[in-house]
Design brief:
The chain has ten helices and no strands. It is globular and about 50 Å long.
Amino acid sequence: MYYNSIQMSLFNYIKVCRLHRTINFSFMAFGALYSNHFVLNLDLLIKILMIYSIFGILLYGGIYSFNNYVDRFDDFKDKNKKNRLIPSGKLKPKNVFLLSSILIAISFVLGFVFLRDLILFQIYLLVTNIIYTTFLKYRNVYLSIITVATTGPTKFLLGYFAIQKNMTYEVLIISLVHYLCSVAYHARKFIYSGKLSKKMK
């Protein structure tokens, strides 16, 4: 019984990190492959897995945990979200905040040691997500969409600049198209949640 309780608690902590959503780091892998002319070798594979581990699992695991921590009061009021891990009482808010802090800290330590040339990407993704989570999405829906949409092409550029250091015209075009698609995606999410339609009235 005690073992099952620990197992379930561990599962909940993994779930609160929303690791399934790190599939969007496939953009990073695409950027890395693009920069290497779509030739996958062992060195590139190791680099991609290292970036995914430090950025996708650790950094974004911490960011998503922080999102759950910040959103807990709104989730409690929403009948569709009140069964989430924190409002349902399955996880304590302070423990989720601690988990978030630890994951982000480990991410930056490992990033500084192994991926120091990509540290600015790490800082940008963290700061942008924190500003969006704590301020923008409650204040200005349009600015929220414009801002959070930048994290999409940033992941592509992260992979690209992990291999190549020179910006090209083609990369700029890909990033711009990716950004516009990202704006459309996030706008659709706000419309679906009703937040954008309310602002337009």
